[in-house]
């Protein structure tokens, strides 16, 4: 499969990349969402701006109260990162479940969330992690809370002329106590249902819960009824079974040839429980 | 518009002019006649097109040739040295790691990535490392044995 013709520009800095971004240009990171889209001719941008050589986007930094991850960091780098394994284990767990080693060597965190595939793993994980997304444009930078970032089907808070530079994960008790589980489509290994949970505990009692679900609806979401029901409960099998009711309440559940609506609903329920039980 | 790239392929420096939309797998096969890199699914699922970029296994059907500018690429043709089979190639030969052979180049390049990171993988680790490479003939059993053979030899 051969994409439509396009121009190609290599950006040496984020600033330069932004200056190259006019209406019909697209950012190229690892290319593992964009290139298949181009090959299938679902999109035909006039120009690709390659940001994969920009050094400042390639690092994971361990700060005092957070870990900041450059948009160009690959899934493989996240899977191997020791500070994330300590402070936010669900990040490494999710990274290891993305695609396969070849895909993980190439695909990037920033590229994945900019694409916002409804079956991608990162949206659920970053939602549970209460992450922040730093975005740069010609006027400077702005920071968007993850709860406001994913807007809809392949739609995010990114505006024209903007580039994601950093994803920041706070170092919290909840993120230290986090897990990701998924039911994957066996060929593509995208999530049919993926669930990330982060629980802040006070002894054996759940103080707060953040749950992210992917693959279920056209955009990642938090089942807030379940998050609320868990507060004040002890973390055990009985309380999980009691609290995890109707995780798709008020949500329009997707249906496709991999999983029907009712099967997906069932899987969502099962995988929220599994993620929570992983933390027992 | 033509773009000029310079890269190393199997130790040789190569300069080429190509369209930005040229896919790396097509560049290797059509421009350099390195037809050992196969194109199966063409959608980054099957792994037949696996090559190494700067030592890491990638699916060359999902990389633009212009993105490989300045990199060091190894294809299956770069495995043997001075006419001697690489231990991974020897393993596939000795353990009957192939039937039709279509997936074999990709299998071997992924095995090389694995053995670089983990010189003594368990059977389970080998099977997990191969999750992005599909074989429709062998049931994977002899492929795993081939990689174990190579690990013992390396």
Would you give an account of this structure?
Chain A has helices spanning 14-20, 34-39, 75-80, 82-87, 89-97, 101-104, 109-115, 122-128, 146-149, 173-176, 224-230, 237-243, 261-277, and strands at residues 7-10, 25-28, 47-50, 60-62, 66-70, 132-137, 140-145, 150-152, 155-156, 163-170, 178-184, 191-202, 205-214. Chain A has 280 residues and is an alpha+beta fold. Chain A folds into three domains: 7-50, 2-Layer Sandwich (Uridine Diphospho-n-acetylenolpyruvylglucosamine Reductase, domain 2), CATH 3.30.43.10; 56-170, 2-Layer Sandwich (Uridine Diphospho-n-acetylenolpyruvylglucosamine Reductase, domain 3); 176-277, Enolase-like, domain 1. In chain A, strands 4-5-10-6-7 form a five-stranded antiparallel β-sheet, with helices on both faces. A three-stranded parallel β-sheet of chain A has the order 1-3-2, with no helix packed on it. A three-stranded antiparallel β-sheet of chain A has the order 11-12-13. Chain A is globular, with a radius of gyration of 19 Å. The termini of chain A are far apart. Chain B is of the alpha+beta class. Chain B has five helices and five strands; from the N terminus they run ββαβββαααα. Chain B is globular and about 50 Å long. In chain B, 44% of the residues are buried. Classes of the chains: A alpha+beta (280), B alpha+beta (154). Chain A binds chain B through residues 1-8, 10, 28, 31-32, 35-36, 38-40, 48, 50, 52, 76, 99-103, 105-106, 187-189, and chain B through 1, 3, 19-21, 23, 26, 42-45, 47, 50, 56-59, 62-64, 66-67, 69, 110, 113-114, 129, 131-133.
Task: Set out the fold topology.
The complex is a heterodimer of chains A (280) and B (154).
Chain A: E1 7-10, H1 14-20, E2 25-28, H2 34-39, E3 47-50, E4 60-62, E5 66-70, H3 75-80, H4 82-87, H5 89-97, H6 101-104, H7 109-115, H8 122-128, E6 132-137, E7 140-145, H9 146-149, E8 150-152, E9 155-156, E10 163-170, H10 173-176, E11 178-184, E12 191-202, E13 205-214, H11 224-230, H12 237-243, H13 261-277
Parallel strand pairs in A: 1-3, 2-3
Antiparallel strand pairs in A: 4-5, 5-10, 6-7, 6-10, 8-9, 11-12, 12-13
Chain B: E1 2-9, E2 12-19, H1 24-31, E3 50-53, E4 56-59, E5 72-74, H2 87-94, H3 104-117, H4 123-129, H5 141-153
Parallel strand pairs in B: 1-5
Antiparallel strand pairs in B: 1-2, 3-4, 3-5
Helix pairs in contact in B: 2-5
